[in-house]
Amino acid sequence: MREPPDLHELVGGDLPPEELEQLSRADALLRSVPAPPHEVPPSLTQAVAEVSLAPRPRARRRLELALVFGALVAALSFGIGRWTGAESFDAAYAITMEPTESAPGAAAVVEVGERDEESGNVELMLEVSGLPPPAGDEYYALWLEQDGEWAATCGYFSVGEGETTVRMTVSYEFRDFDSWVISGGTRTDEPPPLLVAEIPAA
Question: Which of 13, 30, 113, 147 could share a disulfide with 123, CB 3.0–4.6 Å?
Answer without folding.
Answer: 113
